[in-house]
């Protein structure tokens, strides 16, 4: 039956041919617009691309030769063959054009062509099988089929490699499609890191989409788009939509890959349900069916593994990008805040604790819909096959009522924990700022007790939160095993073991395993989402706070003009000052008289209450606190930029630093620390 099916000419030139051709045409609908966005480069053809184009051209020649031969010999089914091979010829020409365009658009690898040639190989194998099974096989047709199969295998192998790597690009960008699927590109990165672990330059560059500069521009563009909607008044919705507009494509792709994984999870039990009777049958079935089962098991498990790893990798990458976008928004907001709020220690918690919660939550966000879906499907499978034990699945859903209560307590404890952490940072900052006064007045014990009391409260809320976390973990770990035990005990005591055949047992075992895995993950992810929501409220409260309304008028004749200007600081009332370009002014006064406050008011750190303030040039402010990094004097001067001897000499000359450098033994290579 299989021989007759595969030898059918109509099947070969319709369904079997349509699979690779259909894939290429459907993929091009999405792929070609993406290629058009890339910039075209002028570059000589590489050896790999030239080999691909040559091999594809030879394959096209072989297909044209076969079509001419079929029409010359006047085959009885030549109409169907012409239609099928004509589609194949069209797809091969389209693949040839895609290869050339991909090279011009600087695409290092092509998943579209990789999958197309893999499907084309299977099509050619069916064609070769049909030719060899003919009573009198045509020799020329057999030769052309074998040549086509060889060329397709060669093209498939060629598409397993990518173009020559560039040191400036990330290894993932230059990896082949197969290497990306299997994460083989990580091997070279890890080996290189092991060999060069004592060097700083072995870390590869980030992909452009993951860089802070790219995310910064994308975030600003999304904010501008969202601000066009005048009906948007709720700031929480506004920021949610900003993040959604930035990352919705990646999130949808993750959900699609996870959906494919969820479908494949239930393919294994279905295959086992049909495979075990075939294996236990007293009359041996067809051998080819066993090969089909084995091959299907292999492909399904390989696809599950690849999809699972792709979801984890893309989710973690998306979480880091969201964290970067929120961090960028916080820093941009700091530039618009009043000077008094710049020293707010709670900002450190926003940047260190709250933004990390987004990374941890988004990395497993897909569990929120994947786990309930798998739980419901498992319950349906158990109900269909074992009605008497399926009622125990209700215990899992009833347990969520207790989990919901625990999550509420976790959110409350986490919120109080963050408040106490902010208080502790405030006290620590106060101690560090006034350490000399505290030591002089012998107030160490008082401040130490105050700090310890806050720390005890902070630890108590942390302990309560971890206790509720432990309750959820206990429920999620123990309940699935209890449900499984009750199911098997019910089957034993109700004497319903007759329904427990081998295939039913394996299906029940795999369904309960899926139940256990998902019920363990689901409460943990909900707990992370609860904590993330509390962090989101804190971040949104900061981002929604009013900006500094500091405005500067233009001044044409003078560098800076103050006319009856008053600022929100003691002593800065009704100020009048005119500064011409190139003028050097010294401000004298007692300690605390407002010298630094005057300078801070000129850069907008202290709000203006009345009067006018005009400025012509840009202003640079050097505070009294030194900003020195641990390293050499030279590294502090160039500040991360490329060393330029001429600019370095000018900088040391105009800052009057050259005389001081001459007194040092190692000159500009003298080591300094941030404690200086």
Automatic annotation (TrEMBL):
One of its GO terms (cellular component) is membrane. Residues 252-531 form the ABC transmembrane type-1 domain. It is found in: Membrane. It is a multi-pass membrane protein. GO terms for molecular function: ABC-type transporter activity; ATP binding; ATP hydrolysis activity. This is ABC transmembrane type-1 domain-containing protein. Gene3D superfamilies: ABC transporter type 1, transmembrane domain, P-loop containing nucleotide triphosphate hydrolases. It comes from Octopus bimaculoides. The keyword Metal-binding does not apply. PANTHER family: ATP-BINDING CASSETTE SUB-FAMILY C.
